[in-house]
Structures are given as C-alpha cells and as structure tokens.
Amino acid sequence: MITVTINNKLCQAEADQTILQVATDNGIHIPTLCHMDGIHDSFSCRICVVEVVGARTLIPACAGKVADGMVVNTATESVLSARRNIVNLLLSNGEHNCLSCEKSGECSLQSIAYELGIEAPPFIMESIEKPTVDDSSVMIVRDNRKCILCRRCVTACNDIVCNDVLSLGFRGSDTTVICDNNIDMGSSSCVQCGQCVQACPVGALTDKKSIGKARSWEVKKVRTTCPYCGVGCQLNLHVKGDKIVKVTGVEDAYPNKGRLCVKGRYGYDFIYSPERLTTPLIKENGKFREASWDEALDLVANKFKEIIAADGPDAVGGISCARSINEDSYQMQKLFRAAFKSPNIDHCARVCHAPTVAGLIKSFGTGGMTNSIEEFADTNCLFVIGSNMTEAHPVASTFVKNGQRNGAKLIVVDPRKAKLADYADEFAQIKVGSDVAFLNGLMNVLITEDLYDKDFVRDHCDNFDALKEKVLEYPPKRASEISGVSEEQIISIAHMLADNKPGMAIYTLGITEHTCGTNNVMSVANLQMLLGNVGKPNTGVNPLRGQNNVQGACDMGALPNTYHGYQSVTDPAAKAKFEQAWNVEGLPDKLGLMIPDMFEKLETKEMKAIYIFGENVVGTEPDISHVIKCLEAAEFVVCNDIFQTETTQYADVVLPAAAWSEDEGTFTNCERRISRVRKVKEAPGIAKPNWWIFREIAKRFGQTWEADSGQELWDNEIAPLAPVFAGATFDKLDQGGIQWPCKTPEDPGTQILHLDGNFTHGKGHLMALDWTPPAEVPDADYPFTLSTGRRLYHYHTRTQTGRCEGLNELLPEEYADISEVDAARLGIEHGEMIVVKSRRGTVKVKAQVSERIPEGLVWMAMHYFENNANWLTTRSGDTITKTPEYKACAVAIEKIQ
Amino acid sequence: MNANARGCMEKDERTHLVTDIVAKHKNSKGALIPILHEVQELYGYLPVEAQETIAKEMNVPISEVFGVISFYSFFSLNPKGKHKISICMGTACYVKGSGPILDKLKETLAIGVGETTEDGEFTLEDCRCLGACGLAPVLTINGKVFGRLTKDDIPEIIEGCKTEGGSVL
C-alpha cells in the first residue's frame, strides 16, 4: 500500500494502480472519453489529464501510475484549460448537435462540455469535410459527424467480441472509423451485435430501434436475463412506462460481462406484438372461440379427470417449457406428479441435451457444465467439438476468441467449416457422426505415446483398463478412415491437447443429437479425464445448452426420472419427502415417458391427452408429418403459450400466458447459474403467469397450493426441497446470479464442479465406447447427409424472433447450404430454389452454395415452417435418452426443372 | 513487366501471385507492409480482390488491411495512370509558385488531385517536399524531376509524355 494525495485527500493505493483508478476508488471524478478500464489502453483522448506536483507536463490519469507520496490535482486552471482545448477541438469539426441526439443526457462529450461550461464551439474547422451518416445497417446507425475517434467501438469490435469488422482508416483529419474495407455497415461482415453501440461514449453509434423512443432520463434500467440461448446473458432493460426501448449488457455481470448478441440486444419487442394471446381459447367445431378462465380451466381439469379416471394417469403426458422461468417448470411437474399422479413429464432437453445430463451423470455424477464461460478466456487450450458457437451461442464464442488471442490453442472439430474455424489453430473437418472414433483415435495417441495424466487417472478415475483396451482398437489409421480427419492431424491434435494444459472441452448439439449422443458425451468426458482436465480452473467438459432455461427445466424436474434437484422418482425416500412436502399421497414412483414415447403412444391411442407448455413441437420435433399425425390422434390437447403457433392449431384449449418480462422468476444458464428474470409490464389482456395456470388446475383437483409468486415458489418450495439449491434464496439471487450447488446460506455457489478430482459419485468413470454409425446413412436413393441447426438471426421456429423488428430482415427465409462441388456437379446456382427430400418429407428451399460445407453434406435450419428441416429429419434417437438424430439423416437434392 | 502485360494477365493468375507474395512474407514480423508493396507492384494499385486475398491468406481482418493501405499515401486504392505526376506543395515550392502550376495541371488534364485521366495516361498527385528545394518549384513524372517550372511549361511537358518516347521522358 502506498499513499497518494488527490485534491488534498489522502488516498490509499496499490503501487500498480493508475491515477484514474485511485481517483475513481476514492470518489474523485476525472472525465474520460476513450478509456475502457482494463480493456482499452490507447490513452489517446487526453481529456483525463491531471496535474502531478513536480511533473514537467500534465499527465493522463488513465496511463499515469501512482507513486508513494504523489500529489495530484484534478481541476487546476491548467488542467481545465487543457481539457477545454481538447473539447473545443473535438467540437470544431463534425456536427455535435444535442437537440435530438439519442445520447443526450448520457453522452460523455456533452457532460464534459457541461462541466467546462462550453456552450458552443468557439471555432469551426470549415476546411475539414463533414463526415456522413451510414444508416445502411438494419440495427445500427453510424453518425460519423458525431464521432470523436476515441476508438472504443474499434476495441469493442476487435478485442472484446472479436468480430473484426471495425478499424480506423485514412489519416490526419481524414481519419474515420471504417467497416471492413471501407464499405457501408449494412454490406459489411458486421453481425450487428451492437457492442460498438454500447461502447460509444457519444451519439455516433445508436441502436436504430431505439431512435425517438425515449430520452435517457426518462428510462429506468431493469436488470434481467436474456430470453434466448443458454448462455444467460445479463441485460439492462431500458424501460419507459411499460415499454422496453433499448437493451444493453450489464457491464460487471457474469457470464457476459456486458456483451450481447444481435438477438439479446435487439430481440426484445416480441412481447408487444399485437398477435399475443390475450384470452383463453376453446376450440369448437374446428374453430377457436374466446372463453373465461373459469370455463377454460374447468374444461381442462374435467377432461384430465375424465381421461385419468377412464384410462389411468399414464394416459396423460406433459411437455414443459425450457424458455419460461424455473418456477413455471417446477409447478408443471408438480401438477403432473402431485395432482394427476402421472410420471409423464418431460421437456425439450429431450431433443437437445438429454445425452449431456445422462452422460455426465454417468461419467462424473452431475449432469451439468463443469466449469464456467469466463474461464474460456483464461485457459491454455480450447477443444470445441460439434458447436457452431458464433451463431448459436455468440457471446460464449467471444470468450473462446478472447482465449485464443490470449494465447490458448483453439481446436475446432466440425463437419462444417463454421466461422469459429477461422480463428482455430487446428480445424478438423470430421465426417458427420464419427465423433467417438475420432475421440478414441485421440485417446489412442495419448495412451500409446504415454501422454495422458497418469496421476489423475490413477487417483481419480476407474475403469482405465477397459478404456485402454477399447481405444487401442482405434489407432489413428482406423480413426482417420472413419472420421475423415488425417492420421497426421489426429496425432498433432492429441499432442496439442497434451502440451497445452489446462484445457477446456466445449461442445454443443453436434455431440448430443445422434443415436450415439450419450456415448459421444461420455467420450468427451473420457478425453478430459485422461488429460487430467477436470476439477480444476480452466478445464472441464462444457456443454453449451440451447435454450435460456433448459438447464433450469432439467433442474426443476421437468424430466420423467427426477424431481427437482435431481432427486430420483424411483427413490422411496425422495417420494416420501415430496409426499409430505406437497401434502399428497401416491406420487408415481416409476419412470415416466420421454417425449418421443409420448408421441408414439398418442398415435396408438394409449395416451389420450397431452399438455404442451410453450413448445412449438410441430416444428421442433423431428419428422413434422408424424408429429401432426400424433397430435391429430390425441383426444385432448392443451397448450399454454404466448402466441398461436403451428402447434396450438392442434389444441382443444389454448391458455394465454405471461411472457418474459411479464413475470418475476429465475432462469438457470448452462453454467448452472441461477439468475433473476424481472417484470417490466403486465401480461396482455387477461393472460396469466404459467405457475398460476398450473395452480388453478391443481385447485380443481382438490389441492391448495399456497405459493403466490415466483419468489414464494422459490423460497418456500424449490430451494428448501432440493439440497443443491437450498442456499440460493431469492434475496441472494437478487444480488446477482448463483451457480448451483449452493447448499447453505453462506455458500457462494460453485463455479467449478468436482474440484480436485473429487467427483460427485466418487471416482470419475471412464467408459469403453465403440463408434456406431448414424441410423440413416446416405445410399443410392438419398445420397446426401442432412445436418441441422440454428442460424444467428433467428431462434428456433421464430415464435419470438419472427416478431422482432429487424430480425426477419436480417434472415428473411430459409436456405439449404450445399457445397460448391455438389452445386457444380448438379448445376445448382447460389440462390436457386431446389428440392430437398428424405424418406419422410420434401421441401422446396433456396440453395446457399457455401465453401464452408463439405461435399455430400446438406445443412438446414428450422426457422421457417414451410421449409423447416424437420419435415425431413429422422425420429431415430439416442439409445439411452431417445434424443433424435437431428444431425444426420439421408436426403436427396434436386434441381427444379 | 509493363502495364499492358499486367492488364492482360488473368485475374486468377494474379490471385495466385498474391497468395505467393503473402506466403513469402507471412511469417516475418510486420509482414503486411512489404506484402502491400509487392502486390501494388503487381497491379499498379491495391484492388479490392487483392485486399481480400491478403486478408484471407494472412488471417487478419480486411479492415486492418484497408486501414494500413489508406493510412500510407504510397498505397493506392485506385488504378494509376501510365504517367504519375507528383507536384510538390512543400513550403519552398509553394512560395515559388507551385499553386498556379497545380491549377494549370488540373486545367490541362481536366482532373483533380488524386485522380486519373479517363484514358489512363495521367494521375495527378500533390506531395510534400521532394528534397529538391533548390529547383523549386518542382514536380516529378514517374520519378523524373522537372524543376524551376512556370505554369507555361506545363502544356509542353504533358504533350511530351503523350509522344511515345517523347523528349521529356
């Protein structure tokens, strides 16, 4: 500790701190323009100059380090005069007009001018050509007339989110911020994440959707959690009245540290859509009519009672929602178990990360991401397999890119040369569905060359001999033949993994959505255990989960095998505990049906009623024609939703629900972080929170559920009834997200699972796994492999993103991505309509000829209904979790003659 | 290689040459500037497709490539004329009357500073001090120095350039 005097105040400081940091810590204001603490060290604007007694010149406080006994004055006449000069020069060119500027009230230049009493620029440099406005981008307006060239946007784009679009071009008074090679932003490679807008201290960059909506002093900021992917970014909603007018990332919050993607920043306005459901609907003679809550709820309760009385509780099933809050999923599984006595509750983790939960429970004992997103930036090796992160988890990908630029080796393994491969040290273009063979090949090299972590394996793992025996069957030559990755590359990747520790494995649905999905997951776990990369900082097996609350819906027991907190339904003690807590008898003690089985049983009429909460299964489940057939076969279908969807068309009753921002509760992201979701407006019409809807149905089954808010549900039931959440009270969550397990009030939560190799179930379990091919492989009739996924600008079936201004403009239609080789061979032009068909369906779709696609592969998404990939996909599922093989089925493509 | 031969070369072939140039320098520190030098030699300027190839092959953002090109006046984003006229606007030349000479050049060639005549013959540029202040005012055409000029010398100089192997060059 040293002592510094700033404006006659004695301040304690660390020796390596800057004057600015010490002043800020001590509540002494020094203006800044270009400074971004710890990120941007250009020291270019000089507005922060201060007087250091004894120094020859004024010192920029952002760059000058403190020294013991230093005496600093931040507002002497010489300091103010220098600042005045700087501001006058900045104002002397361009056009800094505050009248209708979006930034007015929170503009750094305006504030400094105000502090210095500058009313108008005292001189104008007329010889400098006035810059222009670029409003070519869908989401961002660049008003270069207001730019002060502080370069914060360039830093945000290149060093924070690493999208590398912005730079400074030209020289002297011509200097300007450029996009790519000086083209307009709308035509550039910009992905419209808006990080530059958030970084801009003046009005040069603005969110187009926010223009004219509110003055900065009219809004209140409400912190909440993003409603899109499983990264769980923390947002500040800027709210005027009941309208969200802008969204920014919360700078000091985990996991995103202020970063957002295009959907998180600009995908908020769906809640105001005039298409929102506002009242319960009952179908009569094939048409929906409006109904009161009592009528609709009585109908639902009576129908379920009737069916359960006639056919037993197994004849009803429920699909919960991974987009809604934890409290809603908890309440729905409680409705099924406690009121209906049915074990049949599941949710869409079934179609994405069920293999993660099953596989990691088997390998490690806990079915969640072992480490945290922030660690991506600090590790020494990043092994990314089956993950199109830059599109599906854009903010997580920024930390991977940071890690690579901080010196970590980045290995990307994927059938497509996804964008992240451009940043990779090694890109292995693997054949679809060959992951286990490839991973066994890596482990073969690690074992045969004696590169694995023998101490870790000996002390913390079991079943090594069986694993060794198995992977010895996969020498690089065989692994190469199956995976298409060269022997040399397999060997070099194995060496890279062994030489660069600690290392993190990151995967997404390219691993799980296979008939061998659970094996794929366990194979990744094998690799990391062999490398000793578990239970330490900057290591682990890190699945990126799809939906904002898919981790939470699993955690809440919306699964056929567990109560919330992963308490097994087959455990008599758990059953007794919940019977007592819920004041019921006869909770089902057998495993319930998984979603694919529910559909099968609807088709065979063994199941009569299905309750679908917030999921558009006609669009997201594989083989859409089959899903429709099953729903048509159902006797009674109920949907809770916020919009009419392709699925609600098959419902007998549709119940209108409160959406994101219309209810208080929590989401849990993929790193097990429970974060608050807050309310800014009332639900439209008479729409109600989902937990309320489930409670009202339970009431009609004679049960009185006390909890009357998200907080009461969390504090009175969810936390006390599950040891892993017991210490995470709602009040604590209000202070910031907490990663479970959090067992006591003092417990700060758990960033890293299995610390020091102490696995949840004792030793880590190495599994001997064989490669198995996809269920449906190309043949003469269907010679291509179809793989599916998500694109950046939309989320799933567009129920939300399709109703956000601008996102449809960014991706207005679906494409089938095909290789240049196949396009040339079949005479297909980029942008031409083609037919893609499988054994299950046919769609017409535009071809997108891409160098990123290997020969023989077709890649499609599920955003647009008419040419949704799921008309084509197969129902063949993972042998353990039944998760469908969305990543591989056989298709043919044809030119339309 | 003369300009005509360059013009006839297939686009693909030049892209290959750019790739080769990048490969040659790629692993040395500060490779971008020497690469841009050589590629500009190849095309006479730095066209967009060359910028794209350089960015891709060097694995750097194209914004960085463009930032460097646009920073240094040596690099050009536009095709250059056969005859590159640089008139010195440095202090000595300016005082000695390079302003009216520049005006005359603009008038005779019907182009502004930084532009190239439609027939691809002339590019007009201004510069700061060529280090030939004793000859002020001076201009250079493809590196050859013309000194102690008056504006009345300009038409003859231009005409001279147009004549193949003209007396002034």
From TrEMBL, chain A:
Domain 4Fe-4S His(Cys)3-ligated-type: 78-117
Predominant location: membrane
Alphabetical UniProt keywords: 2Fe-2S, 4Fe-4S, Iron, Iron-sulfur, Membrane, Metal-binding, Molybdenum, NAD, Oxidoreductase, Repeat, Translocase
Signal peptide positions (record): none
Source taxon at top rank: Bacteria
SUPFAM superfamilies: 2Fe-2S ferredoxin-like, 4Fe-4S ferredoxins, ADC-like, Formate dehydrogenase/DMSO reductase, domains 1-3
Record PROSITE patterns: 2FE2S_FER_2 (PS51085), 4FE4S_FER_1 (PS00198), 4FE4S_FER_2 (PS51379), 4FE4S_HC3 (PS51839), 4FE4S_MOW_BIS_MGD (PS51669), MOLYBDOPTERIN_PROK_1 (PS00551), MOLYBDOPTERIN_PROK_2 (PS00490), MOLYBDOPTERIN_PROK_3 (PS00932)
Subcellular location: Membrane
InterPro entries: 2Fe-2S_ferredoxin-like_sf, 2Fe-2S_ferredoxin-type, 4Fe4S_Fe-S-bd, 4Fe4S_Fe_S_CS, Asp_de-COase-like_dom_sf, CT_Formate-Dh_H, Formate_Dh-H_N, Formate_DH_asu
A biological-process GO annotation: respiratory electron transport chain
Cofactor(s) of this protein: [4Fe-4S] cluster; [2Fe-2S] cluster; Mo-bis(molybdopterin guanine dinucleotide)
EC number: 1.1.99.33, 1.2.1.2
Annotated protein name in UniProt: Formate dehydrogenase H
UniProtKB/TrEMBL annotation, chain B:
Pfam (any one): 2Fe-2S_thioredx
Note accompanying the cofactor annotation: Binds 1 [2Fe-2S] cluster.
EC class (word): oxidoreductase
Source organism, top-level taxon: Bacteria
Cited InterPro entries: NADP_DH_HndA-like, NuoE-like, NuoE_dom, NuoE_N, Thioredoxin-like_sf
Binding-site positions, [2Fe-2S] cluster: 88, 93, 129, 133
Keyword annotations: 2Fe-2S, Iron, Iron-sulfur, Metal-binding, Oxidoreductase
Cofactor(s) the protein requires to work: [2Fe-2S] cluster
Family: Belongs to the complex I 24 kDa subunit family.
Name of the protein this chain belongs to: NAD(P)H-dependent oxidoreductase subunit E
Organism: Acetobacterium wieringae
Gene: hndA_4
